[in-house]
Amino acid sequence: MSIEVSGLNKKFGDFVALDDVNVTIPTGQLTALLGPSGGGKSTLLRIIAGLEKADTGTVDIEGVDATNLPAQKRNVGFVFQHYAVFKHMTVAKNVAFGLEIRKRPKDEIAHRVDELLKLVHLSQFAHRLPSQLSGGQRQRMALARALAVEPSVLLLDEPFGALDAKVRKELRDWLRRLHDDVHVTTVFVTHDQEEALEVADEIVVINEGRVEQVGTPDQLYDEPANDFVMSFLGEVTHLGGVSLRPHDIELEVAPSLAGSVEGTVSRLVRIGVEVRLTVLTVDGDAVSVVVTRAHARAQRLEEGSTVWLTPATGATVVPRMAAVV
Amino acid sequence: MTSTEIAAVRPARTPRRSGPRNTLTRSSGLGLGIAMIWFSALVLIPLAAVVVTAADGGWQAFWNTITGPQTAAAIRLTVFTALSVTAVNVVMGPLIAWVLVRDRFWGKSVLEVMIDIPFALPTIVAGLVLLSLYGDADSPLGIDIANERPAVFLAFLFVTLPFVVRMVQPVLEELELDVEEAAASLGASRFTTFRRIILPSLTPAITAGAALSFARGVSEYGSLVLLSGNLPFKTEVTSVRILSSIENDNVVAAASVATVLLAISLAVIVLLDVIQRRVAARG
């Protein structure tokens, strides 16, 4: 196991950033730390990198106790949200920095920098200054710089957070492909569940300083451990005593299934191939339901229709938490 | 030249790619005109007048004036002291700025304000302060450097203190911490990070501060006249020398000394700029 974090606690003044966090991050995988802002995921990443010191607890990297190692000695690559470029150095110099610190021979450095710039598709920009690059290019340069020192783990703190949606999506795909080539153990922090589900092999959901669940994207989506994980990973609605996804509700115009709940369609919006309904049930719930357009047409659904709702067989269902409405 | 001729000449210049292109519109042209008149009236014409006055007596008179033993000693003292004070400021300035920006301590805001005192204080008051502290036989510190060369050094140091600090401080505040963290995670020690990442970013500010500090040192008068005693060959600086030339009705001699100072200041500013470019480019 590549990174082993146990019993981590961290407070900033009165604010509890991490509360007894235990996580194991597997070697060679792409792991996402997912959670809302201020939930402690960045703090965890920074503690792994040695940029922040935990109050208690230990960090092992590749079997070595790194708890008291300074950042310089941990051999981790770190990529920052706002790129953290060395403004006065060219792209090539930025990438070479870690190797120069390690006093590698000049020709070896030049060769490796060439190789890395090719990897991140920045070869033609080697002699530019970072200020002449776009945000996406700067982040790719930062990634090459972090990879140059052949880190045992690569840590990315909201790496695409400062980029616009299109570039974000491109870089996300590109990171996935890059990881398939390079295979370095990678951990990235994100608050975007789509990004995590799409890119990561494994996701660690962190909220209010605690680990809520660890699992593959499928596991998290299909078997969420609790209401929080479920609602964070996708849209959730409440029917009777349970939380479930809007597309996991069976909708009929005549009651035929046991335990179905009667309601009235109060709102109907068509978005492409799907139809989104808000149904006011006789129990007083406002339930979101998603059905296909064909289904809606076949049932002649319109605002004011009386319908019966049942959780679909095989639906992901979580008992509803009292606090969540 | 008629306007048609101008129009014919213009297009030939446009294909030139490199170099700044003329971006003046009618209103910005007016702005430039006003700026130039202002600058000329306040700076260029008086400076030219000084040089012209210096040239009045011919080259030989000029040379004799500035190589006269008393004047030469004053120039040497002034330039040498201004240079050493600047060297001290280049080290101390960033250090003080660092403390002000990066550290949190009690009384910081007071210190912040105090840094500017040498700016704000009338220089003669500064001179008086220095005299009572360092120039009295029964000085509370037991230090008496009145009429000694260190008095000049001390006075220069006092009045030039804020320059580098105030130039470096805003730049240091703008530096992103994650850049230093990035360097650390790449294996750079604190010292290496400072030398290769922080210092190059501060260099332009340090250079600008150093230039100001040197210029102020060379021109200083008020703060040192009391403490230094203005002894010829010992503690007499050029500004005092210029004043005494004027008092002796020798305007040409005063202008000659002024011209030398002008040339030296220009040389130092250019030199600092060259050094700054070198350091910034080294990375």
From TrEMBL, chain A:
Entries under Pfam families matching the protein: ABC_tran, TOBE_2
UniProt keyword annotation of Translocase present: yes
Highest rank taxon of the organism: Bacteria
A GO MF label: ATP binding
Keywords: ATP-binding, Nucleotide-binding, Sulfate transport, Translocase, Transport
Chain ranges of the ABC transporter domain: 3-233
Keyword Cytoplasm in record: no
Full protein name: Sulfate/thiosulfate import ATP-binding protein CysA
Organism whose genome encodes this protein: Nocardioides flavus
Automatic annotation (TrEMBL), chain B:
Transmembrane segments: 30-55, 75-101, 113-131, 151-168, 197-218, 251-275
Topology of the protein relative to the lipid bilayer: Multi-pass membrane protein
Pfam families linked to this entry: BPD_transp_1
Main location: membrane
Keywords: Membrane, Sulfate transport, Transmembrane, Transmembrane helix, Transport
Record has Transferase as a keyword: no
Domain ABC transmembrane type-1: 75-270
UniProt-annotated location(s): Membrane
UniProt region (Disordered), positions on chain: 1-23
InterPro entries in the record: CysT_permease, MetI-like, MetI-like_sf, Sulph_transpt2
Record family assignment: Belongs to the binding-protein-dependent transport system permease family. CysTW subfamily.
Entry function: Part of the ABC transporter complex CysAWTP (TC 3.A.1.6.1) involved in sulfate/thiosulfate import. Probably responsible for the translocation of the substrate across the membrane. Part of the ABC transporter complex (TC 3.A.1.6.1) involved in sulfate/thiosulfate import.
Assembly and binders: The complex is composed of two ATP-binding proteins (CysA), two transmembrane proteins (CysT and CysW) and a solute-binding protein (CysP).
NCBIfam families: 3a0106s02, permease_CysT
Protein name: Sulfate transport system permease protein CysT
Source lineage: Bacteria, Bacillati, Actinomycetota, Actinomycetes, Propionibacteriales
